Amino acid sequence: MSDFESTTAFLGKWGRFQQQVFFLLCLRSIPTGYIGLSVVFLADTPQHRCFIPAHANVSAAWRNRSVPPEEGPGGGLALSQCSRYRLEDMVRFSEGDLLPGVDVNLTNVATEGCLDGWEYDQSVYTSTVVSEWDLVCDDQWKKPLTSSVFFFGILIGSFISGQLSDRFGRKIVTILALVVQAFFTFISIFSPSWAFFCCLYFFVGVGNSSGFVAAFVLGTEIFGPHVRKIFSTLGSNLVFAVGYMLLPLFAFITRDWKMLLVALTLPIPLYLPLWWYVPESPRWLLSQGRVEEAEAIIREAAKKNKIEPPSLIFAPLQEETKSPKGKTQNICDLIGSQNIRGVSFTLWMVWICIAIAYFAVSLNTVNLHGNSYLNCFLSATVELPAYVLSWIMFRRCSRRLCLFSTLFTTGLFLLFVQLMPASMTLSKTELCMIAKFAVTIAFSIVYGYTVEVYPTVLRTTALGTSSMIARIGSILSPYIIYLRSYSLSLPYILIGCFSVLCALLSLLLPETYGMPLPDTISQMQRFPGTEGRPKSQGPKRYIRQVRHIRTCSRRRNNVDLCHCAQTR
């Protein structure tokens, strides 16, 4: 449908129809924002200590001193969260009226694990998933797995969204994903176990990403070039950030993981009327041969814009929709030639790095000094100017310079955090927010760059594949944050070094600023080291050359091997 836009140009750029669809599809991004990072509060770990049963005959003095000190991940001494002094010893000392640290040397008292469970501090949260199922100490590995399961659901949702949208339409997937998201978010409240909760939370991730992707595609196919650029770079991203900003507000009001899920679910049914106000993609309808339905949508749009449509709108396109398609491209073509292989592997590394940095910094906001709700709100708020700046940079700056500068800034400021004295907690938080600002810009720019660098025949496949590969980074990010249980500085050191490395790698990517969009693989910008080289002829061709050289060398001792190989 190469002339779809020229055929529908009579609608204008920004009429009532475009305004209505733009506004409603942007609002659709709000649930994606506050559910996408809800695990920050759902699975936060409250302060905890071993529980001493109320019926145990332990004096108040021993209850207050029941936890031994141990070396914390920051190097200093802290009260143990996974052990206590042996209960029978504390009972015996209490019955003998012996005071801890006065009559009894605590270093000589034996310790044991938390055999009776844990008691959790409720000053910040009434309850979280961690406190509900005791995901601490020997089971603390389950906490990052909870986040990773959700992000794996996002990966699967990103994959199936394209398949379902191409088969059943963009509109039905957009609405159906809302239903899936609301249903599984709500029934997660009744999970009888942690494993069951993870299964349900996986489907929350599937609905979260599939709906966002379908709505994004629907908008880009309905709008013209000018509005499409604003929608894809600013509109959906800014509203996503607004949804993200609502998350700490919901969490602050509820303070309980079950009530938080209720609060996240309640607004979603309000979006179901989108079915009657947002049309199906006319482009998709034409691709399915449903010309009459596509024309009816355009006529309704013209009516809203108070424009008289032509008597025949898509008649010239009917033959095009029925014409046979050319060779179908697939994911294997992303690594088919030496040039595109170099671009793909390098760009995928950049995608993974950005995802790790973005989600790790976002998930770690509750571990920063100060109020966890305020820190999360600030982390979301910095995304608003970041998206605006990314749009300006994308219009005026070199793509390689944009990626390099933002990734290098991210890594540099995360490494600076480790150089700050422990007492400068506010400065550390500020540096983390600057890093979040920079990586958000990088995330926005890499989407646009991926669209520009790949040819038309592979553009959608390349963007979908890159987005899926980035989910590897989001799945790994909870485990990188988990490393802070061994060393507080280790996560940011790893992320900082990886960001700087990928910033340098981004300089190898071909420049696309001011370049025409390629339509074929041969029109792509060249990856360094592949200029002027002939296309690789494969291993079989190479083996035949080697065998021929050996044959030549046996027949003629003074043969020119290079000439022999070239003539072959």
UniProtKB/TrEMBL annotation:
Gene3D superfamilies assigned to the protein according to its UniProt record, in alphabetical order: MFS general substrate transporter like domains
Database matches in InterPro entries: MFS_dom, MFS_sugar_transport-like, MFS_trans_sf, Sugar_transporter_CS
What are the transmembrane regions? 21-43, 145-165, 172-188, 194-218, 230-253, 259-278, 345-366, 372-394, 401-421, 433-450, 462-482, 488-509
Instruction: List the record's Gene Ontology CC terms alphabetically.
Output: membrane
The UniProt GO MF terms for this protein read:
transmembrane transporter activity
Q: Where is the Major facilitator superfamily (MFS) profile domain?
A: 89-514
Q: PANTHER family this protein is in?
A: SOLUTE CARRIER FAMILY 22 MEMBER
Keywords, comma-separated and alphabetical = Membrane, Transmembrane, Transmembrane helix
**Localization terms from the record:** Membrane
Task: Report the domain of life of the source organism.
Answer: Eukaryota
Which membrane topology term applies here? Multi-pass membrane protein
Give the main localization category: membrane
Answer yes or no on keyword Transmembrane helix: yes
Q: What is this protein called?
A: Major facilitator superfamily (MFS) profile domain-containing protein
